[in-house]
Amino acid sequence: DQQVKQNSPSLSVQEGRISILNCDYTNSMFDYFLWYKKYPAEGPTFLISISSIKDKNEDGRFTVFLNKSAKHLSLHIVPSQPGDSAVYFCAADNSGGGADGLTFGKGTHLIIQP
Amino acid sequence: NAGVMQNPRHLVRRRGQEARLRCSPMKGHSHVYWYRQLPEEGLKFMVYLQKENIIDESGMPKERFSAEFPKEGPSILRIQQVVRGDSAAYFCASSPKDSFYEQYFGPGTRLTVT
Description:
Chain A contains no helices and 11 strands. Chain A is an all-beta fold. The radius of gyration of chain B is 13 Å and the shape is globular. Chain B starts with a strand and ends with a strand. By secondary structure, chain B is mostly beta strands. Chain B has no helices and 11 strands.
């Protein structure tokens, strides 16, 4: 039962354009969402997060949008750069559900083409 | 400013042997999480520990797996009598006391069971 879904296993975007990575969730108790970036043979690196009380959070080239009614979030990267090529994981948590770990999606492999 | 350290990076075990995976959290972090990533899957939460306490082990298989985070020394994830299905990448993450969401991941240990 996949509570966090990333339906695109891969995405190819031209350098300089906008990359949009999508994530859907089913558990309405999730109230905090994060994006992680992962290079091969390395651990995931935290990128950006958003609380359910907001609908947008921006940090440099990265913006996360949250649509609670649709249970959908997206990560926008603009402009896309070659170093952005990596696997991106969406993760979610329920702060009221006791101490536990994050629930991750399966990831989207972003490929930035020159 | 060392990040989360995991060792070994690669571990090969024959079926029936024991695997011990170590994780040293970032300096000042008192919370440790273990995740497992099977091929083509996202990371799955296994266990959350603080020093000398297991806070949540809801993601741990009921048998053969155990984890500890002693007062001194690294956190250890122990898998007894390994089977082929245990082959995966095991990631440890740590977070500071007041910010469990921003988990910092180690590079992972890739366990191969032959």
